[in-house]
Amino acid sequence: MEVERVQALATLDTLPPEFIRSEHEQPGITTFHGPIPEIPVIDFSDPDRSRIDRAIADAAKEWGFFQLVNHGIPSEVIAELQRVGREFFEEVPQEEKEAIATVPGSGSFEGYGTKLQKDLEGKKAWVDYLFHNVWPERRVDYKFWPKNPKEYRKANEEYTKYLLGVMDEMLKSLSVGLGLDEHALKEASGGEDIELLMKINYYPRCPRPDLALGVVQHTDMSVLTILVPNDVPGLQVFKDDHWFDAKYIPNALVVHIGDQIEILSNGTYKSVLHRTTVKKEKARMSWPVFCSPPGDTVVGPLPQFVSDENPAKYKTKKYKDYEYCKINKLPQ
Ligand SMILES: O=C(O)CCC(=O)C(=O)O
């Protein structure tokens, strides 16, 4: 079956109707205009680690989201990750991209694709993507990794090596911020078996950015999501009933608290609702890495946060069952 990719629509002058969001979603109507509250930016080079821990915990409680600067991943490593991803979308022939397309019904996210089904309102999102596991090694299937550009694999492996370190540090700060041992949240999320799924979003130029959305509003089912965007802004986060633009900070990592951390902390940390807008003049790209427990890991509110006065707000269940309900929009 021939699938229409959004990238093939980038030269249109008018937006096809299935991409026109209803008014309650249109960014032209629903984006907050006015003084934007300060979205937390955390400097990881601060020599006072307890100050970093506090800032991360506060951001996770209040926003479920922050940007991390001076995180230690060399800018060349990020630039190379971005170059090879951009070349895959923009320079590799379409047949070669289709050769690694997602396999419908396989139960796996991996591969190149476009969301085929329309949402409940019959609408589609203005984005194509590529998913592949990057960690642990036994979960990596290179058949879903682009063969071109040639440096694709090396660039992704190099970035992943650094990202594992950043993830560890974020989980330590978040644990300490809850008064736990620094290893507690990582242990509760699968320890060394925690799985990292790379996604590349390609949001082509769009004739009516005021009417369309890239990724529609959602929270991430992961433990944490750590993302780098290209230099085209577009991420919006929801807080106090408003959609706020997150500013683009060169070389910053964007960190989203995922649903599993909200659950483990019994609601102290918030999983952030977010979405993306698109642009008329330029394609936007982003590279989120979803850090998630292995499917059989049982996740629920940690006993330290449950009492008669503060009962469990979430069910305890295997991550794969949580994922199934989330993907199929079933109650948890
Ligand atoms: O592109 C972004 O900044 C966010 C992407 C995202 O939320 C997603 O792919 O789930």
From TrEMBL:
User: Where on the tree of life does the source sit, at the highest rank?
Assistant: Eukaryota
Taking every annotated instance into account, which residue ranges of this chain make up the domain Fe2OG dioxygenase?
Answer: 193-293
Q: Which SUPFAM superfamilies match?
A: Clavaminate synthase-like
- Give GO terms: molecular function aspect only: dioxygenase activity; L-ascorbic acid binding; metal ion binding
* Pfam families for this protein: 2OG-FeII_Oxy, DIOX_N
Keywords (A to Z) from UniProt: Dioxygenase, Flavonoid biosynthesis, Iron, Metal-binding, Oxidoreductase, Vitamin C
Keyword Hydrolase belongs to the record:
no
* Protein name stated in the entry: Flavonol synthase
Question: Native species of this protein?
Answer: Lilium regale
| Classification of source organism | Eukaryota, Viridiplantae, Streptophyta, Embryophyta, Tracheophyta
* Name of the gene: FLS
